[in-house]
Amino acid sequence: MIRIVSGTFGGRRLEVPAAGTRPTSERVREALFSRLESWGEVRGARVLDLFAGSGALGFEALSRGAASATLVDNSTGALKVLRSNVSKNGFPNVRVVRADAAKFESIHSFSLAFLDPPYDIDMGLLRNVLEHIEKFLEEDALVVVELSARTPEPQWPSSYQRESSKKWGETMVWFLTFSRQTGSVEA
């Protein structure tokens, strides 16, 4: 079990899938969301949480004022836990979707996206996922990618501009801004 750190649902407990996930720690979520809130990125956001696992990132965003959250995972165990967490905690405006992150489809657009894949994800697959979700992102959407601190920085697709990065313990987080304008990305 983990808990939501702050906001309307602060302190509520979340189930975690028995295997195959690595929930973002409370310490990292607190620091991450403090940064996102200081940038004005959470309140009213339409959130996409890919590789959702327990849904901790999406639920934390809802607790802090996000308008909606779409939680996407392909694991039967994770989907069961996600649905249970929604039901037990009464989270509003949540969609739980069974889909492969690289094949996910949506009629909704998103202003904030979290990608917290398994640490051993192939960088080519990560790039494919980022390119695939472009059609669902709003202009200037913020995309947060969480990987192991030992992972070299991925090469981002040209439609993403790295704004900053931050290391918290064994976790490295990259903050990217999405733009439909083709541009160059510094590695």
How is this structure best described in words?
- There is one protein chain.
- With 187 residues, this protein is α/β, with parallel strands linked by helices.
- Helix content is 25%, strand content 29%.
- The protein has four helices and nine strands.
- A seven-stranded mixed sheet has the order 5-4-3-6-7-9-8, covered by helices on one side. Strands 1-2 form a two-stranded antiparallel sheet.
- The longest helix is centred in the middle third of the chain and has 14 residues, at 76-89.
- The protein is globular and about 40 Å long.
- The relative contact order is 0.16.
Question: How would you summarize this macromolecular structure in one to three sentences?
Answer:
The protein is α/β, with parallel strands linked by helices and 187 residues long.
Question: What topology emerges from the helices and strands here?
Answer:
Elements: E1 2-3, E2 13-14, H1 26-38, E3 46-50, H2 56-63, E4 68-73, H3 76-89, E5 94-98, E6 110-115, H4 123-133, E7 137-148, E8 160-168, E9 171-178
Parallel strand pairs: 3-4, 3-6, 4-5, 6-7
Antiparallel strand pairs: 1-2, 7-9, 8-9
Distance between the termini: 37 Å
Number of strands: 9
Taken from the alpha-carbon principal axes, the silhouette is globular
Order of strands, main sheet, comes to: 5-4-3-6-7-9-8
Which structural category fits the helices and strands? Answer: alpha/beta
Give the radius of gyration: 15 Å
Q: What percentage of the residues does DSSP assign to strands (E)?
A: 25-35%
Please work out how many helical segments DSSP would assign. Answer: 4
Spans of at least 5 consecutive residues whose pLDDT stays below 50 are: none
Largest sheet geometry: 7 strands, mixed
How much helix is in the residues? 10-25%
The arrangement of helices and strands along the chain is EEHEHEHEEHEEE
Average pLDDT score: 93
